[in-house]
Fold these 3 entries.
Entry 1:
Amino acid sequence: MDKKERIVLAFLFVISCIYSFVMPEGSIEKIENVPEITIFIEGAVNTKLSYDHDPTISEIFKDIHIENSYGFDENYCLSSQDVFYIPAGEQLISLNSATKEELMTIKGIGEKKAAAIIEQRNQERFQTIEDIMKVSGIGEKTYLKIREQLCL
């Protein structure tokens, strides 16, 4: 590299350094990271809602224009990527108040699982239908089969 090329490179380097220091702040846009909380609604309504905060169930029902007649705790907050299931059936079985015999009418729920559901709700009331997956022996596969018959 000869002397002229070195001078040109040094000159360009100095110019770029000066420009980066004197560039007005107004021309630099500030990027705000606003989190987008996405909630997937399934069942009676199938949609996707986006929020800038963790929404409560009350907000969800307000935004989809449906009355909460299912017994959901309206103060319960959902998190991003949650799937919120709203039952579509008419003869629903309440997770928070059904008897053992009523729970056993659900296909796939026998005496032991019904007892486990009652034990779980005695420890902590169900806030969402998805909470049934906290019961030992009820995984996502079983939940997906029975969720249409459940309410809170």
Note: The longest helix spans residues 3-22.
Entry 2:
Amino acid sequence: MKIIDKIKSHLKKTGEYDEKIIMEMMENALGHKGMYYWYYDIVNDISIQSKASQRDFNIPEVVEKYSEKYETIIPVHKDSMKDYTNQLKQVLEGKEECNCEIKLKDDKKDRWLNINYKVICDMAGKPVKAYGLAVDITDNKIIEMRYHNAMTKRIVSEKEIKISEKIIYSTIASEYDYVAYVNGINEEYTIFINENNSADNISAVSGKQYEQAKIYLINKYVIEEERERLINQTKLSYIYKQLEDSRELFIFFSSVIKGEIRRKKVRFSYMNREKKQLIVSEIDVSDIYIEEQKKNEILKNALLNAESANKAKLNFLSNMSHDLRTPMNAIVGMTELSMENIDNKEKVLEYL
């Protein structure tokens, strides 16, 4: 049975069949290489996987007691299992949208996925089902790691960063807005800035007051409604706290560049945990963000359409019940009168 038919069959049994939501979900994922989708029935704790997930990860099509079995069924690397577990916890708590990046267990090569859940709750706010979409981001992660490792290997001291300029400049020009090194002990920093998407226009800026420089740049480039949040989330104390249990921290914000609002993603990770040395990089994710907003809008509209159809069905059944009840009462009444006069043929014929 095809995955879409399997999901339909399951939802029909539970009385929660929403055709439009399923179709929009599948249509957004079909035909895209490196994309995997699945349906999660939270109430009954059942996961239904796509054929791509079954084929590439050897996951059963239907997984019962998913919240208990996922650690043994889903091929998540041990370094990412905590992040995946936290995401599933957010799904079960009813968070509307959950996103995380995970590394997979693979003997042949390292692979990473970006996993996004869209959670749907009932009228009482209780989560009842979720739709998952995973995108293979291995190529981007390999590029990120290459230059993270290059920077790490080339550090001679806390005050001097010696990196292969040709490699780092070419990478920054093609992938990043900037790559920076921050010494959390004395707040010294060096930023390699991509000014015109060219390796010949990468400039290096160094300073000794990270917090002060950060606040200046946020106030200059970040949209006003996100400034306070970003200032708090980029404090060194906050970053170190978040990195206690994770290998990396991602922060998203909107920036105004030449009069245009662009969506940005900043990554923080340790270069040297003991010495409080950080690597910071920023990339533009506007195109991805816009695409995700479109998908979310499709899901939202599909949900509204499904709820409207369900309401119409309930109204129809209610009206039918009323219309049927009146003649049925008359039939029952006449039948009872006939039974009471069963020996009187004329009366029986009159009542019936």
Note: The chain has three domains: 3-136, 140-288, 320-351.
Entry 3:
Amino acid sequence: MLQDEKLGRLEAVLFAAGEPVGIPQLAELLGVNKPQAWELVSLLQEEYRTERRGLELREVAEGWQLCTKACHHEAVLQLADTMELKLSNASMETLAIIAYRQPVTRAEMEAIRGVKVDGVVNTLLEWELIAEAGRKETAGRPILYKTTKKFLEVFGLKSLKDLPAMPDVLAEDAERHPRQLSLLDMEAAEEMEILDPNPKDPEVREITDLDPKPDA
């Protein structure tokens, strides 16, 4: 198969997927090995860098996805305004708390927002932007929540480390509650090979795997 044909097939697969596709799956779909898949992705990514293209090929959530370029943000927003679904301010605020302080309980979210979050959390669960992440080992063993792979996809993030700077209100809360170990802290610590939690320490919570289950 000619290289141009392979690039065309790669572009078609990524467009049809509508979500990030990993190199192993791309290699299988294109009938090539992984190094060849990497090469094709690099070539297609380079093609999309020209100014006349409105899309770009980005690495998102451990896969590759076709996305609109930031320079066309206004045009895309106009389209988004015509779409039926939009997250409310309350949903965005709660989602931000979960993203930066995860894993976090509903009570902890409410302590920061000052209002009940039951309805908002249920909505975020329905849209698969968040998921349960075990239970906190305190009285009542409340459910912990974390963001999902779909959250990364929706906001165009490669990982949680790509989140922008923590908002002031959450930074202040983090200072007031330094005992809480977030998934962001755990990711950074694991990379530096310094994370060694003591399971007997009541302040260290058992966390489930960060990666959510694949969408059905």
Note: Residues 178-186, 188-216 have pLDDT under 50 and may be disordered.
